[in-house]
């Protein structure tokens, strides 16, 4: 066990944790931030996607020791009220079915749009290739990504 | 800071008697959607004519969502039906998740049964409340009830324009007798049903606030991971927990003996710890010796068994005419063998359950499709009477039939009892893959005979497979879960025989979305295509010819009692028209079509694919047409059509579970790929406008996908795929094979 300081959703936190423990379990079990999901524990499904220094990463494979001193953003920190353009687009397109994978999908897309405000279809496909949805919401996700890009650009 | 799930759900319902003597349940809960806000209604003046509706004096209309939402949208559509009949303002309705309880009627998620099964009762629940509110208003105004209407939360006296809100009428309505037979609305007056509504949980989903089973957090809760049998049927012989208990955070190691029926509870060794991570590390450190089990079990041997058994006739389940004589006199006989693999459920939310067992009671929280069995099994392993077990149904991160088995509920219950604390049982993804109840694998032998004019005069179908009813020790015969005796083309071809032989295996099987329709439709609709191509007929034209004139034919079992061939033809024609059937395609492209009846509804697909010179398959487009009767929420229905279509596509392309040495080979999404974003084509969904009562929807559009795609591959390449998954087929042109 070790004392680890990090920033989560803009808040500085100091936690006592096994540095080998993946960030996912720190978020879910220690801090109660259950919006980030456990799907496979192998970095394959994308349900656990969070932002580390603004970049989309899989929290299920990321040891807590490696995020010390860094800024983590989870779905709970994207916006409290669903006002982030990606969240708004997800609501407008009625994307979720069971909803379990959607936090990971949204975090991946938020990161994509931050670096690529007007992504091409190929960029969208490449970014989302590692986020699985068992319910088959992909067609609506595709529409929601385009809509989010419009919302983010202020209708440009 | 912890996000706590509201836990004291038992106090949410207060049961009292009404003057009329019927059961009245007053909701006393915080709104789960909006947090625990909102004052408690004054129960004395609130109005709750049945368990589904409560109207508070402050105009709050609360509607109970009785079934677990597994992504089928039932938490939106059920309350919509009640709100429609009630005349509520949908935007202001407050929704509450029901716990499991007999007062609600059947609760669960399976068999595409939800709206089909509850349509009448939900409407009556709303209509009863509406009539009582109108009666109260009519009394207050001294007018005839017939001159009043309920709309958007108010009762309106049409001639005078006077209005009273539901809340103002609640107290008076509560004192009126409950009408025995409330009049239902004429569907032409529906204002909510038939309009599109977004999912009610979506705002909580996109902000990470919605609670799935795995998100339940209770004060003092511990986490458990279970070492499960390394081979099917093995039991625990000896456990050395020393190293596991030495892992920081591990509290306790518990041996689970399992129940006789493997669908009820598997044996194992549980590690209970302060966090999931500590429990996982503890499990890694466990030393368990196992005994028994079926170490010789393998899918390779099973396929051999299938082929051996298929050489002999099976039990004849349905015979029409004289199939043998018809085959003998046929001008042309076609024969083919189709093989379909085991499939995993692989819901994104891993299997889990949380239990708190103490002081003679047990509370369960979890993603259940069948809460009744969760309660029964938890009662059995804790020794408590069933009424002492409360089942809280969380949102469900996908089910697909896996959670119709509730084996994870007794795990949580007995571990909580052992630990003396709330315990959340977590299955890893690998646990989920290796201890699933798979869609049965099977071997299908088909024969068809054509007369001198090319008319199909005989069809025989022999199935050898692993029956899920046999696996779960069901009282029903093994074939009952595997074949549906009235499925097309029974009743459409004069000489017909359906045979079945169960294979012996310990490989676990269970219901999977659309049950065995997922396999049988692939086989039947592919073989119809073979006949069409063999005689040089357009595949759509042959299907139209076989369906014949519109008529109703008897259909036994789920989805019955009748199959309307005109509606089957309707979806076939609609899919073909929308897809542009018959329009030319570039070389290397092909279109395929398939149609199927399930759970009372009708579905057809047209798939458009291409195969390039390297044999790479691309599915460009799926067009689906469905007739499920009246549609409650078109936006939600479209999602179900898209979802089930892509689910069917993913399974057809990639799905296969294999077993070696008594153990499932695939342990993760890397070995059992789901359909990925970049593989998903657009799905164009079309619903047939209908005034008929709603029938099933969640599974309906899955079965025709695999045959439509396989038939399209044939159209593109001339290669007939008779074994799934499609990704195993070599689609390279003959000259390019190595």
What's the helix and strand layout?
The complex is a heterodimer of chains A (156) and B (738).
Chain A: E1 2-8, E2 11-17, H1 23-30, E3 49-52, E4 55-58, E5 71-73, H2 75-78, H3 85-92, H4 102-115, H5 121-128, H6 138-152
Parallel strand pairs in A: 1-5
Antiparallel strand pairs in A: 1-2, 3-4, 3-5
Chain B: E1 13-17, E2 23-27, E3 47-50, E4 53-55, E5 61-65, H1 74-86, E6 93-97, H2 114-141, E7 148-151, E8 154-157, E9 162-165, H3 166-174, H4 202-206, E10 222-227, E11 235-240, H5 242-245, E12 250-256, E13 268-273, H6 276-285, E14 287-291, H7 299-310, E15 315-320, H8 323-329, E16 332-340, E17 352-358, E18 361-366, H9 371-382, E19 389-393, H10 408-419, E20 423-426, H11 429-434, E21 442-450, E22 456-465, H12 468-471, E23 495-502, H13 517-535, H14 539-547, E24 552-554, E25 562-564, H15 565-579, E26 589-598, E27 601-611, E28 617-627, H16 634-654, E29 659-660, E30 663-664, E31 682-687, H17 705-717
Parallel strand pairs in B: 5-6, 10-20, 18-19, 22-23, 28-31
Antiparallel strand pairs in B: 1-2, 3-4, 4-5, 7-8, 8-9, 10-13, 11-14, 12-13, 15-23, 16-21, 17-18, 17-20, 21-22, 24-25, 26-27, 27-28, 29-30
Side-by-side strand order of the widest sheet of chain A: 2-1-5-3-4
Distance between the termini of chain B: 61 Å
Could you state the order of secondary-structure elements of chain A as H and E? Answer: EEHEEEHHHHH
Mean pLDDT of chain B: 92
CATH topology of the largest domain in chain B: Aldehyde Oxidoreductase, domain 4
Low confidence ranges of chain B: 1-44
CATH class of the largest domain in chain A: Alpha Beta
Radius of gyration of chain A (Å): 15 Å
* Largest pleated sheet of chain B: 7 strands, mixed
| Counted beta strands of chain A | 5
Arithmetic mean pLDDT of chain A: 96
| CATH homologous superfamily placement of the largest domain in chain A | Beta-grasp domain
Helix fraction of chain A, binned, reads 25-40%
Rough shape of chain B? Answer: globular
Order of strands side by side in the largest beta sheet of chain B? 12-13-10-20-17-18-19
The helix-and-strand class of chain A reads: alpha+beta
The largest interface is: A-B, 61 and 69 residues
Tell me the quaternary state: heterodimer
Q: Could you tell me the strand content of chain A as a percent range? A: 15-25%
